[in-house]
Amino acid sequence: MSRKDHCSICERETEKGIYLLRVFICEDCEAEMIDTPADDPKYDYFVKRMAKAHRSMIPS
Length: 60
Hints:
By secondary structure, the protein is an alpha+beta fold. It has helices spanning about 25-35, 40-55; strands at about 5, 15, 15-20, 25.
């Protein structure tokens, strides 16, 4: 039985991906993040989504 998780970037449910600082990222988003140059507007989107996901993991 495979475990499915929700991607913190695209919010899709998938079995394949990685955890980075306890934040799950699907393979598609991981690949897109790696290939996105820092001057691309999508880069800022990824940074904001990762920050939001990471903040949600910090207990209050």
